[in-house]
Amino acid sequence: MKTLTAKQNIWQVIFASSAGTLIEWYDFYIFGSLSSIISEKFFPPSNPELAYIATLAFFAVGFIVRPFGAIVFGHLGDKAGRKYTFLLTLMIMGGSTFAIGIIPSYATVGLVAPALILVLRLLQGLALGGEYGGAATYVAEHSPADRRGYYTSFIQTTATLGLFVSLGVILATRTSMSSESFNEWGWRIPFLLSILLVVMSYYIRIRLQESPLFAQMKSEGKTSANPIKESFGNKENLKLVLIALFGATMGQGVVWYTGQFYALSFLQKTMNIEFVQSNIIIAIGLLLGTPFFIYFGGLSDRIGRKKIMMAGMLIAALAYYPIYAAMDNIGNVNKKVELKDAFRIENKSHRNDAGEMVTVTTRVHTYDDATILNETDGKKEITVSMKNMTFLVLLVFIQVLFVTMVYAPIAAFLVELFPTRIRYTSMSLPYHIGNGVFGGLLPTISTILVTQYNNHLAGLIYPIAIALICFVFGVVMIRERKGEAL
Q: Contact 305/409 with Cβ under 8 angstroms?
């Protein structure tokens, strides 16, 4: 079948697909990046720890419903086409994200606030469930067989870049105003900005043509009459779906969320590192690691998808404990020698939005040249030295490398596993169960484990176990298919 081989055409396809997918990830991850503030704004203030866990649970809901979105929009994509479907998911995601930015807080409307947040998170999850499969399939069906891993790896960068952009927008907004203004209303700006990004992406995508493989299949009357039944009712295809889930996407999902979202949560909630500094650490780690998506995607065209993914899972599982133990040691002020009464009081005055003069009193403890503990209005945060900040960036970067190994080849692997007529549906479901359920629940499960066992490293039990199980299953069950005709 004919595919686009001209560089200009394939790069147009990649740009249009990636831009829209990046924006959808940006929309989806603003919620997670601002989870600490959202827990304060939309839940009862009587129990802050429970409010934060509830916020993580709402964050997880968006992941849990992604498999349902995969079924609904996968079915639509295999019947109506790739282009139409991911235009629809883009608009649903953008509208839901914008709406989160205008919802009144708990202080204004009470329990209506978290109820509205829940509905919008459900819509976001459904939309994202249909987005990834469409974008990955669309790019893969335009790509030459011997470069499929390389070209689809650009789609793989979008999730990490979406998180990076969300952190960048949040940091830019936060540093442009006082912390009080940001906590009061400035946090809404990143949500509201999404509508502009969605409009731009829609304009780019509407100009695309349908995938050549799907267009030819449709013109020949060979599209599936019932993609869901063919995908999951057929014994042989169902076996491939299960291999994709338990041998690849399950482990890939937990590695992705450990190396990026759990790392951010660990810095902010476990180590109590100051908001701006913790986000900068993650943002730099992501920026340094992102080019390796392209490297490992291209490498998978030469040595195969399976070797790289399995190696990434195994190395990650073995390395997580020492990495997080080193991180925890930097932030654990209880292990440092405190000089009694060695603190100073700082009073800072500024005018609030109402023009009133407000004084904030901060007690600053200096433990060593690496860690400063700030206690402001009962809230504790630490600021680490440049040396230790650099070390934390390195530890996050190493985790992002694991992410690139397991994630870069996954789109090409999934596309090559299933036939064109049911590809959108078949690949979307295992991907979104692996990422949405196993990966998406990670921050919530790990936070509960830390709270339950009162051990900062207890949260690692979950991702290490899942990664090892997936590694064993994948080594045994996956057959290499790199470069096979679609």
A: yes
- Per residue in 278-325, pLDDT (tens digit) is 989 998 998 999 999 999 999 999 999 999 999 999 999 999 999 999
Give the contacts of 60 (CB within 8 A, at least 6 positions apart): 440, 441, 443, 444
- Report how far Cα 143 is from the mean position of its chain's Cα atoms: 25
CA dihedral 380, 381, 384, 389 (to 10 degrees): 150
Fold for domain 7-336+380-477? Growth Hormone; Chain: A; (1.20.1250)
CA 285 to chain centre: 14
Q: What are phi and psi of 464, to 5 degrees?
A: -65, -45
Kind plus residue range of the DSSP H or E element containing 366: strand 357-366
The structure tokens listed for 359 are 């004084």
Cβ atoms of residues 264 and 59 within 8 Å: no
Spell out the domain ranges in the chain: 7-336+380-477, 343-379
Structure tokens at 346: 């700082």
What DSSP designation does 224 have?
-
3-state SS, one letter per residue, for 105-122: CHHHHCCHHHHHHHHHHH
pTM of the model: 0.79
